[in-house]
Design the sequence.
């Protein structure tokens, strides 16, 4: 059983890491990062069957791909605090010569990252390829991926979604961060996604909806449900309903903080709302 | 002057198919992906022999490139197969981010390159692919000249760890390199030694260069011929060695003169040994429908065009 209180404390520290990384270099994407903090903490601290250390091939362990690479601050924080690289390295986010590039990449050899992402719409395809490799290797572990909802506007996703069901890629769980926001406004105003659940179901995916996508307990239950659906001939989609900017009051319920850094005063407010739990880097 | 025998015209794509078939038997990590062109890419035998290692992705090339990148994670060596146009221009960003920047061991195998695709016309006749691919950091770019060499290259790239673009074509052309010959990535082949001009050719233009060499000899011009099967990394030493003797160059390729082999050679020359150069290539234009021979003639991509360019460049010395 997961210790919910412990995971929530983990999330609080991750929120601090997110706003501090972005504030320091006055750039980066805090909104989507905060919205997915609970999900990534739950994933890395409870859901994934991970091996110690990092091996690119990820044989005999669950592996994860971040398709919406702009939420790198949360990814880096969770990877570092899950033991993939020193937490102090979060100090180098977006700096020259850093392994923590603006968007995640394998290019600088950062442990925990298996593919570059940032240019949107490519992660599900990569995850399907990795899932196919697992089947060829008789590896019964699961491939997980996360993408944004606005990202579903990229056509490549639908090529991949069609392939996934058509070829029974049932060792794959793709979470979609349904926060309803993108750079130019709400997804409904920019390019309406319509019935995302209905679309995935029409493509013959199994869909699990997590209505409280910022609630650890709800995420754990939803992901457990997703996991039980693997191995049954269909890929699984998890619709994760989140609030962009969750945990920092002035960043919530708006697209304004998609790619904007807090100033000194705003940082102080964000940190005051999220007291240190695991120790700042 | 060495003699090269055409052992019977064959398409280079069939060389790819033969190489892939052999790899299927010898390397269990090799997997193949195809975007609804299995027959055109000659991948049928691999598919029949190893259905579990063959991925039919449908008309969805972007997904194919992403899947190929993913398959490397787990130790597979993916070979993607579709036409050159759909292997490059259509999926440039997928190759750039998920394969090249991510450093994935994917072999992008591209048939029907250039105008010799023929009657289908310009929508399918990409003449920009070498440029697109050679600009990607870390990408190895290969354009083989005949069936035997394409087969050898297909087998060789499986043993190289890194992204590769392998370009070949549709028409049946002279097959003159050794059967089961060796293939060394990045090593140019001096097919003829010459003293007056160096002809540096790639792909289908290599045989044309050998034919041109014979005509030039009759005209009293001694032409060297270098087969550049690997455009990146480019064998600068082989080029400079010949140019030191001849003092001028003709480059020949079934590609736009912008971004192709010719420009890569120009850079080597500019940095090391500036000499006159003529470009046998398409002149910043799209192709059109026609037979391969008609198109090679119209766009100046045959032995006659090489002879003309060589005569001109020798006079410029």
Sequence:
């Amino acid at each position: 059983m997961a210790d919910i209180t412990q995971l929530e404390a983990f999330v609080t520290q991750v929120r601090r890491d997110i706003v501090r990384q972005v504030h320091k270099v006055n750039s980066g994407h805090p909104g989507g990062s905060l919205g997915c903090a609970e999900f990534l903490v739950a994933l890395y601290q409870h859901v994934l069957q991970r091996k110690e250390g990092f091996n690119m091939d990820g044989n005999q362990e669950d592996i994860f791909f971040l398709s919406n690479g702009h939420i790198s601050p949360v990814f880096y924080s969770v990877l570092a605090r899950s033991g993939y690289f020193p937490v102090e390295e979060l100090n180098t986010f977006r700096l020259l010569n850093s392994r923590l590039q603006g968007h995640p990449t394998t290019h600088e050899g950062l442990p925990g990252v298996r593919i570059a992402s940032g240019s949107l719409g490519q992660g599900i395809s990569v995850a399907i390829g990795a899932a196919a490799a697992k089947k060829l290797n008789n590896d019964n572990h699961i491939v997980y991926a996360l993408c944004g909802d606005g990202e579903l506007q990229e056509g490549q996703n639908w090529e991949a979604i069609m392939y996934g069901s058509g070829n029974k890629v049932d060792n794959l769980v793709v979470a979609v961060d349904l926060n309803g926001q993108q750079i130019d406004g709400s997804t409904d105003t920019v390019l309406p996604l319509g019935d995302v659940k209905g679309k995935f179901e029409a493509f013959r995916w199994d869909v699990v909806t997590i209505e409280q996508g910022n609630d650890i307990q709800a995420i754990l239950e939803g992901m457990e449900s997703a996991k039980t659906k693997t191995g049954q001939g269909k890929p699984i989609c998890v619709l994760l309903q989140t609030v962009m900017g969750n945990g920092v009051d002035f960043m919530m319920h708006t697209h304004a903080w998609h790619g904007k850094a807090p100033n000194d005063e705003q940082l102080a407010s964000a940190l005051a709302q999220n007291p240190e739990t695991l120790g700042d880097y | 002057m060495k003699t090269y025998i055409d052992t019977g015209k064959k398409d280079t794509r069939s060389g790819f198919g033969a190489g892939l078939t052999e790899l299927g038997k010898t390397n269990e990590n090799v997997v193949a992906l195809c975007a609804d062109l299995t027959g055109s890419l000659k991948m049928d035998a691999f598919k029949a022999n190893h259905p579990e290692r063959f991925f039919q992705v449908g008309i969805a090339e972007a997904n194919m490139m992403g899947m190929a990148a993913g398959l490397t994670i787990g130790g597979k060596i993916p070979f993607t197969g579709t036409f050159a146009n759909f292997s490059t221009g259509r999926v440039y960003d997928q190759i750039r981010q998920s394969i090249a920047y991510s450093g994935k061991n994917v072999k992008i195998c591209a048939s029907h390159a250039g105008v010799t695709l023929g009657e289908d016309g310009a929508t399918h006749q990409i003449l920009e692919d070498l440029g697109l691919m050679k600009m990607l950091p870390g990408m190895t770019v290969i354009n083989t000249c005949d069936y035997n060499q394409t087969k050898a290259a297909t087998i060789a790239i499986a043993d190289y760890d890194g992204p590769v673009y392998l370009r070949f074509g549709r028409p049946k052309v002279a097959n003159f390199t050794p059967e089961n010959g060796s293939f060394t990535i990045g090593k140019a082949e001096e097919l003829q030694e010459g003293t007056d001009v160096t002809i540096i050719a790639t792909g289908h233009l290599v045989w044309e260069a050998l034919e041109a060499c014979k005509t030039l000899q009759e005209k009293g011009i001694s032409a060297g011929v270098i087969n550049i099967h690997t455009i990146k990394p480019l064998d600068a030493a082989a080029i400079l060695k010949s140019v030191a003797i001849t003092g001028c160059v003709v480059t020949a390729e079934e590609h736009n003169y912008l971004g192709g082999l010719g420009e890569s050679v120009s850079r080597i020359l500019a940095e090391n040994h500036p000499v006159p150069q003529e470009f046998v290539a398409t002149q910043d234009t799209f192709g059109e429908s026609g037979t391969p021979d008609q198109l090679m003639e119209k766009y100046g991509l045959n032995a006659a065009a090489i002879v003309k360019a060589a005569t001109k460049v020798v006079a410029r010395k």
Q: What stands out?
A: The longest helix of chain B spans residues 12-26. Residues 78 and 167 of chain B are 16 Å apart (CA to CA). DSSP finds twelve helices and 14 strands in chain B. The mean pLDDT of chain B is 98.
